[in-house]
């Protein structure tokens, strides 16, 4: 019965074609019997064409692979090796290195104008200063150059999506908390703070001086004991996420065609030109021809032919400079002046205090050297202190909890009574690329090694200056000189002539 | 002929038996002697129409300028390579110079071949040393792809040429150029003959290169070491032009219709490759594309088949050979100092190397066809003869001249003028060897202004 209905239905459907009904009725009978497929297997004919299709497809794919424009080669090439030739090799893939790479690509006027290679030793960034940083940015420096750098970098970071956004990708969110820095001064440093305030205002930073009573009004949780003057940054100061900035620079730079290589620069091949000065002293000018990049966990290395090398290796820049013999010459010569950058270990402790200062907390820096800032919205704070007498051992990144118990906590609790009951949640240690000479960055090329540029030695304020310094180095390389900001005060000359540019506000 | 060929062959024992510290001096001196001896070919006896004729090899006014150019270039190549090859093991240095000399041998035999099949064999034979030089002494991974492109583009054109030549041999019984001038083409209207016409010319058009099949040239030039680039630009491209001119004799009346698309392609190529030059970031790549541009003009001049066209083509070939080779040598001087071919990083050199800036200026002026240099003479003759063929081509050739001038000036201004980068504090001053090299390129060019009849071919 149902079968008959089914037949009838099928017949009515077939009747939709314009043929006389009677004729089609008879016809459809046979047809529907044929349309009703009784066999469960597929007919053999379909297999043949499908196989042929598949074979053609495989053949096409194979020939496409062997076409000249594709990647396939008969020789096995190790893809993680850097290219054999790059115009500019940036040693160090921290925020400074990637900022320089981004600005170099930004400034080339023609696509693929320069080939930039960033060489980073550690893809996990386990020892990199960038990501272990507290991430603060401030304009409260004593040197006008530093203030100008911070203002320029803050401007970059506030408009970061105008610079670093990539098409079809998420916009960059730096989590820039504009909470400002609060420096506290005791009797003997209040004078310096006032002079700094004048310099900062002159250069254009928006800073305010507060008396102890004003301080107590604004931040009631502070114990103003011993404080004579406080300096509070009103704009462009605060903290942000260093990982986000690093990844934003990296993503944008790679989208613009910067090559990235995970390897370690272990040496350079260079040529030397010996010349005599007017007084008859001998000077050896060196020119780097190749940078040897060694692959991780392997003996394989690739000599990368390069025109310029930028030393942005942060805490380890001293070692990279030694590979060129900077500092290994005779004592009273230019070649004997080493790059005075060495790693210094600093600790950061994450503490939880439920009755703590709250959301209004600025990045507070006490005259005793201890500092803290709010971290997130759950009552966590980050605290630390620069060690005064003894520098911790830099062979590892182990945290010294005794330091917190003995040095940091008492001073913290003295300044902010609520911190007497806090709990240390976690802690980490990171390296400053510490410039032992004058704790300020070294930017520019070395007088004897013609094509090595430095962008290192920022001693704790490198992250906040990275956008502006990156632009300055790119201008130095591509335009022949500084254009927007003149950082010639940070050149290596001052190290040779032993004229320090001392920054009085080093945290 | 033998008094040039045998000393050239004897260069091989010189290379391999001379003690190591005399290698470069001896080979340079020997090849300079051979080059000066080759100048004797300029004495043209117009009775027979051929210089130094024997049964198998002879030179005529078309081929002896090119043969002299080939001989002249070998000492220049050896001088240019001295610096960058000097750090290698001695055997490798000897091999390198042997490859250059073997190229010279094949080239002299090619230009003086009287039998077209001999010419074909020598034409193919020049590919092998060039391929070895590009892939073994080039500096980057891309050189393998460059070698592949170079090899297979040329072979793609020359297999049909072989078939066409064998067919011609079968048809006429001889391939000697003495007799082929009297051959009539039998049936010019059939498709088969038209295909045969294309097959005859395709190899040479690829070698010139014509615009559509020019992709191998920038790759090969950029990846080759300086001597490879010099010989490629100066002489190997001219093999294509010379081959075309020889084949025109047998291609008969068919060329009048069949050449149409190739002339247009060549003229269009001048403008296209000239525009590409304006956007180049790599120094050698810019010079390579400018070679394509000039050779487009030569190709159209040859395909027009008028006396002025041919004369212009020969003059432009010789002049372009010297000028382009000079530019590659200059690019190499800059590359040896900064290890970068990127134009953004090798700027403002006039402040540091002012004498080299003077050579840059001269070479760029030669490239943009400044009067009274022979580059202009050749270009003008070709432009006039092409205009005679069709008035509309003046748009293409005029625009092409304008673009040539602009990219030559762009090249000069970018590399020489402008702010000097910071990292050029101490660079090697210009070596005497480099000055010698440039002088040996540009002095013949200037001398040719005074007696251009040497290059004019049969037509004057």
The assigned structural class of chain B equals mainly alpha
CATH architecture descriptor text of the largest domain in chain A: 3-Layer(bba) Sandwich
**Largest interface pair:** A-B, 36 and 29 residues
Number of helices of chain B: 19
What is the ordering of alpha helices and beta strands of chain B?
A: HHHHHHHHHHHHHHHHHHH
Overall pLDDT score of chain B: 91
The CATH superfamily of the largest domain in chain A is identified as FAD/NAD(P)-binding domain
Give the helix/strand class of chain A.
Answer: alpha/beta
Oligomer: heterodimer
Number of strands of chain B: 0
- The largest beta-sheet of chain A arranges its strands as 5-6-4-14-15-16-13-17
Spatial separation of the terminal alpha carbons of chain B: 24 Å
Shape of chain B: globular
Main sheet record of chain A? 8 strands, mixed
Q: Give the strand tally of chain A.
A: 19
Number of helices of chain A: 13
**Which range does the strand content of chain A fall in?**
15-25%
Major sheet of chain B: size, sense and barrel closure?
none
- Mean model confidence by pLDDT of chain A: 86
Describe the protein's architecture and organization:
The complex is a heterodimer of chains A (507) and B (460). With 507 residues, chain A is an alpha/beta fold. Helices cover 32% and strands 23% of the residues of chain A. Chain A is built from 13 helices and 19 strands. Chain A has an 8-stranded mixed beta sheet, sandwiched between helices. A 6-stranded mixed beta sheet of chain A has the order 8-2-1-12-19-18, sandwiched between helices. A 3-stranded antiparallel beta sheet of chain A has the order 9-10-11, with no helix packed on it. The longest helix of chain A is centred in the N-terminal third of the chain and has 23 residues. The radius of gyration of chain A is 33 Å and the shape is globular. About 4% of the residues of chain A have low confidence. Chain B has a domain of 202 residues. The mean pLDDT of chain B is 91. In chain B, helix 3 runs parallel beside helix 15 and helix 15 runs antiparallel to helix 16. Classes of the chains: A alpha/beta (507), B mainly alpha (460). The interface between A and B is medium-sized, with 36 and 29 residues. Chain B: Keywords: Electron transport, Membrane, Mitochondrion, NAD, Respiratory chain, Translocase, Transmembrane, Transmembrane helix, Transport, Ubiquinone. Chain B: This is NADH-ubiquinone oxidoreductase chain 4. Chain B: It is a multi-pass membrane protein. Chain B: It is an enzyme of class 7 (translocase).
